Amino acid sequence: MAGNNLEVRGNVKSAETPARSRGFASRLLIGLSSAVCIVLFQNCGTDFVPLSESQLSSLGQFICSPSLQENFNKTYYSFARSNCAACHGTSQSPRFALPDAALSYSQFNNTDQATFKEYALNPSHGGGAGGLKNEVAINLAESRFDGCKSGGGGGSGLVTARTTPLTLNATNNIALRSFTTLDSQLEVGSTNLGGARLHFQVRVDTAAAVPAYFITRPSLQTGTASVAVRGITIRINGNPISSATAFTMVDRVIPPNTNPLAGQTPNGNLSTGSAVFEFPGANPLTDTVQFEFELLQAQ
Ligand code: HEC
Q1: Which of 90, 220, 256, 297 has CA 20 to 30 A from 211's CA?
Q2: pLDDT the model gives residue 66
Q3: Closest Cα to atom 4, ligand 1: which residue?
């Protein structure tokens, strides 16, 4: 929400024409309505308008970029440009609010996040620029920036099992995909999982400048064996996606004969979270996914 406020204020400052302002308002409305579609994972028919990354970010669905520079641009930098540029965008060191984002990022690294926050929250800093009014925005910037750092979800980096590649065949609509014979679909790890299957849902947003994948609700269907699952990470086309940290905290033992697709209790859902990540140059029909596990083993 803080991001929205900043954007609106920016528009007012640049004294836009009424026509342009109306355009902004209707774009925002379209954005909000399609956000509801995405949040509910519904097929919104012909009215479906995929969100751009900045629209998603301002609505609370933050997408990590592959580089820390880009994540800085979307978090601390946009805050600093709006609130601190009068001094730190000109000559005052550290110059983390310069018009040039790359220079600003290198200057930002001359201080540390805790000091930045302390100054941002200090009412006697910067002639009214600092203060508690910044608390929400600065906490959001901090948690998003930290959440995008490699392994930000707390993954151990240890991988003892990895599936073979499965074609995503992703579209704008959320759809179920499955590894139906996991015993023979692991390129690393045990081949004796008692007939377990791995399910997940996928969609792609190709309307933004950089396409983004949404991988959600991984679940394990078990057969004869109870299976322990811990620490899930994702590869696309063989490349680890370090920002896809939504499932790194999974730590479950799924009892035998559990079928997540049959609405049983307990079910085999491993997480209700979503891994959302940009994938430049995505080919949604042919890109492949691999799931990696810190642990995937029959008990
Ligand atoms: C009116 C000018 C002015 C504005 C606006 C301003 N600052 Fe500063 N800032 C200074 C001055 C002068 C210093 C150096 C003296 C000091 O450390 O207080 C400084 C120093 C800093 C430092 C250096 C800390 C270190 O590593 O030593 C940080 C971080 C900082 N400011 C953050 C901010 C943030 C965040 C904002 C926006 C919310 C902001 N400032 C807005 C004038 C300003």
Answers
A1: 220
A2: 65
A3: 126
Is the separation of the CB atoms in 245 and 153 below 8 Å? yes
Q: Is the CB of 129 under 6 A from ligand 1?
A: yes
Angle at 238 between CA 234 and CA 239, to 5 degrees: 65
In 10 A of CB 116, how many CB atoms?
A: 21
Q: How far apart are CA 124 and CA 131, in angstroms?
A: 7
pLDDT tens-digit map of 24-71: 454 544 444 444 444 444 333 333 445 555 555 544 556 676 677 888
The best mutation among 87, 121, 124, 135 to test binding of ligand 1, ranked by most ligand atoms within 8 Å of the C-beta, falls on 87
pLDDT digits (tens, 9 = 90+) for 73-86: 989 999 999 999 99
- CA-closest candidate to residue 288, choices 230, 239, 216: 239
144 C-beta neighbours (distance < 10 Å), count:
19
Q: Is 115 near ligand 1, meaning CB less than 6 Å away?
A: yes
Q: Is 84 in the pocket of ligand 1 (CB under 6 A)?
A: yes
Write down the mean pLDDT value for the chain: 79
Tokens describing residue 111: 């201080």
- List C-alpha distances in Å: 277 to 49, 214, 272: 18, 7, 16
